[in-house]
Amino acid sequence: MDLQANIKKSIVIAFKEVYQVDLEEKAIVLQPTRKEFEGTYTLVTFPFAGRLRQSPEAVANAIGEYLKESSSEIADFNVLKGFLNLVIADNIWVEVFNNILNTENYGQNETNDKTVMVEYSSPNTNKPLHLGHLRNNFLGYSLAEILKAGGYKVVKANLVNDRGIHICKSMLAYQKWGNNETPSESLKGDHLIGKYYVEFDKNYKVEIEALVDEQKVNYPAIAATTSVKELKDALKKKKDLTDDEKKQIETIKEIYTYAEKNAPSFLEAQEMLRKWEAGDEKTVALWKQLNNWVYDGFNHTYKLIGVDFDQFYYESDTYLLGKDIVNEGLEKNTFYKKEDDSVWADLSNTKLDDKLVLRGDGTSVYITQDMGTADLKYKDYSVDKSIYVVGNEQDHHFKVLKTILGNLERPYADGIYHMSYGMVELPNGKMKSREGTVVDADDLVGGMIDIAKERTDEQGKIDGFTEDQAQELYKMLALGALKYFILKVDPKNTILFDPEESIEFQGNTGPFIQYNHARICSLMRKADEMGVSYTKDVSLSNLETLEVELISLMSTFPDVIKDAGEKYAPSIIAQYAYDLARTYSRFFNECPIFKNDSEEVIQFRLTLSYGVGKVIEKAMKLLGIGVPERM
RNA sequence: GGUCCUGUAGCUCAGCUGGAUAGAGCAACUGCCUUCUAAGCAGUAGGUCCCAGGUUCGAAUCCUGGCGGGAUCACCA
Fold first, then answer.
1. Å from the A454 CA to the B31 C1'
2. What are phi and psi of A150, to 5 degrees?
């Protein structure tokens, strides 16, 4: 039963009967009534007033009067200016609630026979996951769950970036300084490799500076300076540069570019990449070993944060894909070749600049393999939609990719969607791996679990818990706080990650919602002791405002799920879960459940609590957050 | 410079398919545990919704132009 739709139908009839006008159901917009007025839905009559040559107030009164008389759903109404507030009959709410109770897996939309792939996480295998990856993982996982609940068949995919110059860098450093170190309890594989990646970078930087200073003699504009780096930093800070200084900057850039490409260790890394691509046995063996360590480390983290995948793609398998598509593009004249044999996608039909898709030497670039992988995904799953959960720094890239695939007349091109999300910034600025200001994912989660333990223990709320149960609760609360903190924000906004605030357990937080679930479970336990149980068929004729509010909120859940899926916004679910928990919390305080004379009321409120608990549980599940039975 | 995103309370964020007196949380202050979990509830205080025009009965919301913040415009991935 769709209450809103029924009311709209009644309104259409009302307009026909009262004013002899035909309205489309779509033209009628019902909005939630503001808290300070009585009623659940509000019809705004301003738009009709002009047409009917009546005051908005008169229209509202006439329609309200008609509805009250003729519609069993409308118990009462009130009018303020052009706002017609409709009060729904309590027995209708009871009916709505019974419907919810008797709907299996309430919230789940009917299947739509469509398949969608959600690619997320997609890490580089040269360093451990950090806070930015956490946002990606939480968003991807949640979106996948939301789409499932929205009726899609979902494939969660992870495209692992396991090859390339950056991988060779850590391999090289390990080869040089690794002394056959292996992962251990205290240093798992991804962290181990990350350590060597940092080592490489440190050494590389030293080499660059040395090379730069060596080169400066060839450049009169800066030859006299003692340290190029100091000069560079000084110029960076300065405003209103003179022409000479601007020239110096250009020169410095030039030298750095040269140094970056000619530093010994960089050349070595390049050489290693060539060997890898040639299939050199030793190189490939090292690569395999180190990558496997990293995967073990990642799997540990994935398990810790509770995300999973149905399909892994590896760039070492896919990086050569896409070259056929380049030929196809040339044949279809949507690509063209330049004099140096490089191939470009013609994007003159858009605002975008033409894009290189194959280098002059025949090697591919990032977008080449992305085209190939897109084909592969379609081949594997004939997906109707393909979602890429990738940061907003790649907005342009995905615009180009989608356009190119469209020009190539790929049937799936329209279904490509870049779920772009904003960066995660720290109170003192951006995270920069080179400056050591990254927040490591494992450390962060570990730290939050510790804090969850502290808070819980000091409240003395784990009496009777086994050690395992306690540990499980700490983890559930820690991840609940973290995931909710990140998911409640609209994906496209930049997040300011304040470690202090993210572990708050009060107010608009994950634990607050979890707490309300635990309270409900506590009621259920008490009911059990008292020999009362919830029912699948409540009957009651008189409801409290908060009871109506709860039922009304619950009734919108399937639509909220659909909306969140259409907007690719887990934040909508987060907001909903909080609204429901908060409303329940007020109900809990104002409406005693057991301390009540009427058997009927006790059973109704108990059942209402049960229903709310179920919806909270399901909503949180869509965010990848578990709910405890006690806390 | 071009393109895209963004600017709402001291702070973190909702609201943005136009609708009533702009909402939450945190922080501050005041109440409420012999009664179902106080990780809670109730209340007080806090706003030029970046600015200026425009459209409209009505604009935080739509349009135009500014200003501030961010991303991007690689033969990097």
1. 29
2. -85, 0
